[in-house]
Amino acid sequence: MNASRSTIKNLRNFTHMRDIHLSTINCKKVIAKNGKNSSSTRWLTRQLSDPYVEKSKTMNLRCRSAFKLIEIDDKYRFLTAGQVVIDCGAAPGSWTQVAVKRVNAVALNPQEPRGIVISIDKQPIYPIEEMPILHNKRHMQS
Fold this sequence. Notes:
By secondary structure, the chain is mainly alpha-helical. The protein has two domains: 5-49, no CATH class; 66-141, Rossmann fold. The protein is 44% helix and 7% strand. It is built from seven helices and two strands. The protein has helices at residues 5-18, 23-26, 38-49, 51-58, 66-76, 94-102, 137-141; strands spanning 84-88, 116-120. The protein has a two-stranded parallel sheet. It is globular, with a radius of gyration of 19 Å. The termini are far apart. Residues 15-27 have low confidence and may be disordered.
């Protein structure tokens, strides 16, 4: 499906006013830049056409790996409300986002017990909705 230039321009104006991302329209064709090898171009093409990347954006997840945890938990049901979860190597935080919802860490469902999610990583983790973040002071000073 090809969109006309005027349609794309109108969509860009519309989305700019509403802070919506249009990567699927703008980046369907990847043009190799100088200094980029073919494997980088192939990876970028796969990344832009990956349905899980697109779905992670619409669900406001940090990366597509969250769907791996969702699929595993749907199958084995190991994340339940009221549990304590320690996420080691948590950056960028997509598994933490899933764990927060599955263990009811922010009390989205007041009838279920409230869980706790502790995220640990050397890398900085940007705040997750209504979750307290403990920062490593050494990393902040350097």
